[in-house]
Amino acid sequence: MSATGGTAPSAPVPASLTPSDLEEIALARAAWSRLVEPGDEVAGALVAGVGAAAALRWLAAMTSEASSIVHGVGRLCAHLGVDDAVARRRIERAVARWQPRLEGLDPRREVSVLTRLGGRLIIPEGEEWPRRFADLGPSAPMCLWVRGDAPVGPTLERAVALVGARACTDYGERVAGEFSMGLGDRGFTTVSGGAYGIDAAVHRGSLAGDGPTVAFLAGGIDRLYPAGNADLLRAVADGGGLVLSEVPPGSVPSRVRFLKRNRLIAAAGAATVVVEAAWRSGSLATAALALDLLRPVGAVPGPVTSMASAGCHRLLREGRAVCVTDLAEVCELASPLGEDGSGAQDREQAREASDHRPHDGLDAVTALVYEALPVRRGAGLEAIGRAAGVSPAEAMAGVGRLELAGLAARDGIGWKRTIS
Question: What are the chain's domains?
Fold first, then answer.
């Protein structure tokens, strides 16, 4: 349609895109990420059907008359599995939601905020877009706001989502750290949500093992949340990992956005592992989303007396998850036979690694310090304590115990592991 009519424009003809085309599309998608809430399938269908820029011009030209809003648009949502009448009603309600946010909309300003943060915007039309997000269909994100220099698509090509409760036990925290550190050594990226508890242990473990880790946030990437993990999230972005969000800078995390964010974690991984979860943990919703996407799901068993593992036991009892007890089984879940030639090698290497754990028997704090020690270059006590989530005094004591055990050694003015 034209910008002044009520008929939707026709679908775009595939063609090679110029840099100016990509810039226009990126700005339009940035605008859509502000206009709609995450996972809005009507917006996703509209943008997929006519293109982000054309859909934005069409929305800006709409009047409040229902006939103008829905005329000729019902066909765009046919693949949502509803008839024309239902599609028309859904679009009418959607436009009523979107239009109030048009006032003051300025995607260039938001992109400039991103640039000042050292971040960037990626879109489905670009080369960095994660291929697995295609499985989300019309609920796929409009774009991703990115902190971190690693290329998003390649970083997520071999990825495992590790999730669990915020209120975790020492057992769950240690398993999450060991799995994530080992996965990095096997060439996998870990994916989680940047929260307290299991999420933080996952990111710390990957950083300690020099493996990439990706944190999906429910708010803007300029508002690192929770605030207590801000240093950890900055370390993720600065240490070869990525901090990603589908909502623009300045967006506040909310309960609904947390729930919608979970679909990105589930979609990004080749498999999802629930490390520790209570009966009603939000990580069970992530597992359910992964199953909906036909991703394999694993669950780590815990003590039968531990309510912190009741959700994992529930997944196993209901047959919705595979029992995962070591790194080899995580690798097997993420690299099924026939997917590529690396699965058997990953499993064999993981089995060998799981047979030799020099840090077995350490107390909880010392184990965290061990996981935070770099393998290649020494780090100072302040950096080690920050990565481990312990106080400087605990970091110093932990390093001392590790040195006595032969597990840590001085490297210049810092410390590193002697056994990886």
Answer: 19-105 (no CATH), 131-355 (3.40.50.450), 365-417 (1.10.10)
Q: Angle between the 84-98 and 41-50 helix axes, to the nearest 10 degrees?
A: 100
Local structure of 277: helix, strand or coil: coil
**Whether 384 contacts 410, CB under 8 Å:** no
* CA–CA separation, 283 and 163 (whole Å): 6
Q: State both tokens at 77.
A: 């949502």
**Beta-carbon contacts of residue 350 (< 8 Å; ≥ 6 apart):** 182, 186, 326, 327, 328, 330, 331
Least Cα distance to 117 among 223, 25, 191 occurs for 223
Task: Give the helix/strand (H/E) hosting 297.
Answer: strand 297-299
The pairing of beta strand 408-411 with beta strand 297-299: unpaired
Cβ neighbours, 10 Å, residue 266: 28
Rounded Cα–Cα distance for residues 29 and 138 (Å): 14
59 in Cβ contact with 99 (< 8 Å): yes
> Which residues face 144 on adjacent strands?
122
| Strand ranges, E, within 150-252 | 159-164, 189-192, 213-216, 242-245
Cβ atoms of 171 and 276 closer than 8 Å: yes
Q: How far is CA 364 from CA 60, 310, 371, 374, in A?
A: 57, 22, 11, 18
The structure tokens listed for 309 are: 């593992």
Q: Which residues contact 118 (CB under 8 A, 6 or more apart)?
A: 147
pLDDT tens, the chain, 420 aa long: 333 334 444 344 445 677 788 899 999 999 999 999 999 999 998 898 889 998 898 888 875 444 444 544 554 555 566 666 777 788 888 888 898 899 889 999 999 999 999 999 999 999 999 999 999 999 999 999 999 999 999 999 999 999 999 999 999 999 999 999 999 999 999 999 999 999 999 999 999 987 999 999 999 999 999 999 999 999 999 999 999 999 999 999 999 999 999 999 999 999 999 999 999 888 999 999 999 999 999 999 999 999 999 999 999 999 999 999 999 999 999 986 434 444 445 545 555 554 545 566 788 888 889 888 887 778 888 888 888 888 888 888 888 888 888 889 888 778 888 854
Q: Which amino acid is at 243?
A: V
Whole-angstrom Cα distance, residue 178 to residue 275? 11
